[in-house]
Amino acid sequence: MKIGELSQRTDTPVRMLRYYEEQGLIHSERLPNGYRIYEDYVVDRVRQVRGLLEVGLPTRIIKQILPCLDSSRAIHLPYVTPDMIATLEHERDRMEEKIECLTKNHRAINDYLEAVSHEIRDS
Fold first, then answer.
1. What is the pLDDT, as a whole number, of residue 16?
2. Is the distance from CB of 26 to CB of 17 less than 8 angstroms?
3. What is the DSSP code string of 33-59?
4. Cβ(9)–Cβ(43) under 8 Å?
5. Where are the alpha helices (DSSP H) in 1-123?
6. What pTM did the predictor assign?
7. Are 38 and 28 in contact (CB under 8 A)?
């Protein structure tokens, strides 16, 4: 798929996709005319990268953990440092807090919708 389609499918601006490629987070093939062509799996990769960026991970860390997104057996991190491990642990803990908060909010909205649905049906 071309970059415009990838942009539409992932709701990611073309400029941001080019940045992801510059950072080595996604890869494309180039046609003779210079157009970028992406494989289908890149849609999921872009969504994963965006999610990791949204929780605050910098692109340099995301690039290092990309092998984990494909398969935990493919992890090759030759430059693991104590700082990187500490950063990942901190970000993991922040994600856990966000997950807990989202879960509570999800339950609250679901409970509210159920209560409203019963009110409407009983009216």
1. 96
2. yes
3. TS-EE--THHHHHHHHHHHHHHTT--H
4. yes
5. 3-10, 14-22, 41-54, 59-70, 82-122
6. 0.66
7. yes
